[in-house]
Amino acid sequence: MAEPKMGSQTEYTLMENNDDDGSVLAAEFKINSDLGDLGVQLSGSPPAPTSHWAWASDATHEMLIHWLCPFCSSFNKLPREQQLRSRRIRCNPLYYVCAYLPTVLSLYTGLKVHMLMGQSGPVGAEETRVEYEARVHWIYCTSGAMVAVIATDLLEAIYYTVKQEFFEYYLGIVVSLAICISFVGGNHMFLWMMVRRSLVGVRAIIMCNLMFSVSMLADLILLVCEYTWSEESVEKESGFNLIVLIFKLLERLACVAFFVVATFIYARLWSLYRYDGRSLGRRLCQILPALLAAAAICGLMLFGFLYNDGDYSSLIWDNFTRR
């Protein structure tokens, strides 16, 4: 157990209990307001979690309350048990069905995936609030969601193979698998760079996420412009079909907004680390896997967005909207 360091602006407490295979079973973080925290203790009350699911559940509540109630500082400072007893949480089925359930499943799956990569714990002895949010709120959650997509892709591949129709649908499955695997690989490299406090590596990953977000945003803008400028397309869409079109555009807008916000969150790590004096060759070897993963994602997206007048654009969007 590492005791809090008195006299410093950052108060950090880490409790780590390991089972036989070295898995992290409990962690408690206390980071005061100079790092942008709202006074929330991940394992304050109720007691510290004793299982990965309990940790994911507690971290999910902390994350949702932090992001859904960003201006409710007094509510965010309450103990977790008191927060969950409040009417806005306890009597809100939308919170549990639409927010808590998908988030906790993604976070738990992402935690298990990164445990296999040896990335289940903090990125440093004194993990800042910004690093914690990037690791748990965004990296674990997006990795968990991508693994779920990979699982559905594999089930689809098995289903179409049994029906002897695999080669009719293989392109969409292959593109989806490649994007998801590259994305999880990029998240792994991001945490790897954060653990090593690599200024160059972290900035490379942030730029990769920026490229990814910009490419999705550009495709959405082009799609809206296409429907706006094409009178023929607008005339075809009427009644229920027009409602479906609007839903698809809003769905894709929400998807783009998620990745844009994630990029801004990651950007807070831009100047957190310092140059360590290593040679250019060593730095390039360190960031090369991350750049390859980013290039694979961007290449597949450009292929889908632009090839054959954008006929494969839907393959990219289906990967994120799962329709």
Give the tags.
mainly alpha; 2 domains; disordered N terminus
Structural description of this entry:
The protein has 323 residues and is mainly alpha-helical. It has helices spanning 52-68, 73-76, 80-85, 87-90, 93-116, 129-162, 166-195, 199-229, 231-236, 240-267, 280-306, 313-321. The model is unreliable at 1-48 (pLDDT under 50).
| CA-based gyration radius | 22 Å
Largest sheet: none
Low-confidence stretches: 1-48
The helix content, as a percent range, equals 55-70%
Quickly count the domains. 2
> Which structural class do the helices and strands define?
mainly alpha
Strand percentage lies at under 5%
- How large is the count of helical segments? 12
Distance, first to last CA: 47 Å
Helix-strand string: HHHHHHHHHHHH
Give the SSE map:
Blueprint: H1 52-68, H2 73-76, H3 80-85, H4 87-90, H5 93-116, H6 129-162, H7 166-195, H8 199-229, H9 231-236, H10 240-267, H11 280-306, H12 313-321
Helix pairs in contact: 1-5, 5-6, 6-7, 7-8, 7-11, 7-12, 8-10, 8-11, 11-12
